[in-house]
Amino acid sequence: MMSNFSYYIEMSRQLHLFQATPKIWNYIKYRLLARKAIISVRRYTPQIGSLSLTTRCNLNCGYCNSAKIRQEGKVNWQESEATLEKVKRILANPFFTNCLFFELGGGEPLLVEELDKIVAYLAEHGHITNVITNGLLLNNRITELKHAGVSRISISLYDENLSVMENTLEKVNKIFPVHASIVLLRSLIEKKPDKLLDMVRFANNAGCISMRFFIYRPMGINPQPEEIISNTNLAYIEFRRKIEDAFPGFCFWPEIVNTDTVKKLCPHLWQRVGCDMLGNIIICCGIDSTLKGPNSNLFENEPEVIFNHPTLVAMREQLMDPRCAPPHACKICNLLGDPGW
Q1: pLDDT tens digits, residue range 33-73?
Q2: Strands 272-276 and 48-52
Q3: Torsion angle defined by CA atoms of residues 228, 229, 235 and 239, in that order, rounded to the nearest 10 degrees
Q4: What is the pLDDT of residues 173-196, one digit of tens each?
Q5: Do residues 100 and 128 make contact, with C-beta atoms less than 8 angstroms apart?
Q6: Three-state secondary structure readout of 58-70
Q7: What is the pTM for the complete model shown?
């Protein structure tokens, strides 16, 4: 199994150390200071920033948050589409300024015209960047992203994009090696493990650096809780053994949903912050909704107020109190027992 250490080394290769120093110090403070339900931004601010660059996509996956947003039709795509100026405005906010690591997603970020300029701006200011894409347009943009200083590119593999990837992924990897990922559903593990094995083999043969598996979470247009993989799923255990035997050291494996005694270790409500281009704050990566009500918008409220929004404070209290059950949204999230980095 690929180690987290190698993952972090790779992510930091293009780091501008001088510009990154305040971000690294911010991370050190997070590691040294005790977690609290109410946090002062003078102690530390989140270290991981997630930017939703667009609601547009050239695929329509049922478990995608952006697909749900598009279906609801509440947001004009032009207003929610990233530009360099919009991203600069977000990063000027103290809530985001010292994020060491930025995930750039959507929607499909390669549809954003100024993506290369956004990546270059982040790199120049000491941020590590990870572009999360379905890869359909990557062959056309890989060279400009490399020159912009992107730290990492992660391609999600699906049935819908596999034929394009079979024609382009090896070419892409010769210019800038990428990582692949697959979302694991229980039905696929139980009924089509050989198909998943073939996808891993394809990514490996095409020259990808690694394969990362994600446990399905019931979000998006059509949530399916029955597709969650737990620690009692024998098919998953056998699938993991088979993959590791065939491709030792190639894969990152996630925590899975633990049905036994649950350790509430997830750090995301302390460590991560995400928003769209309208300033709506995303609660965490496991919930497909944003903060609601007063004090929930980046452009309208002070960072201290947003960081201590009642929803976030209540969830932190439940995570910290050993007598309390996890927040409802966390009970079926595989990251509940993952301590993060």
Answers
A1: 999 999 999 999 999 999 999 999 988 666 565 555 555 55
A2: parallel
A3: 120
A4: 999 999 999 999 999 999 999 999
A5: yes
A6: CCCCCCCHHHHHH
A7: 0.92
Closest C-alpha to 143, from 187, 176, 182: 176
| Residue 338 near residue 258 (C-beta atoms within 8 A) | no
Residue in the block written with tokens 């382009």: 168
List all residues 6 or more positions away from 278 whose beta carbon is below 8 Å from its beta carbon: 75, 79, 80, 297, 299
If DSSP states are collapsed to H, E and C, what string results for the chain? Answer: CCCHHHHHHHHCCCCCHHHHHHHHHHHHHHHHCCCCCCCCCCCCCCCEEEEECCCCCCCCCCCCHHHHHHHHCCCCHHHHCCCHHHHHHHHCCHHHHCCCEEEEECCCHHHCCCHHHHHHHHHHCCCEEEEEECCCCHHHHHHHHHHHCCCEEEEECCCCCHHHHHHHHHHHHHHCCCEEEEEECHHHHHHCHHHHHHHHHHHHHCCCCCEEEEECCCCCCCCCHHHCCECCCHHHHHHHHHHHHHCCCCEECCCCECCCCCCCCCCHHHHEEEEECCCEEECCCCCCCECCCCCCECCCCCHHHHHCCHHHHHHHHHHHCCCCCCCHHHCCCHHHHCCCC
Number of Cβ within a 10 Å radius of residue 328: 9
Domains of the chain, start order: 4-337 (3.20.20.70)
Residue 336 or 86, more confident:
86
Question: Which single residue is written with the structure tokens 């201590």?
Answer: 308
The total number of residues shown for the chain amounts to: 341
- 306 vs 239: CA distance, rounded Å: 42
Position 5 confidence tier, pLDDT thresholds 50, 70, 90: low
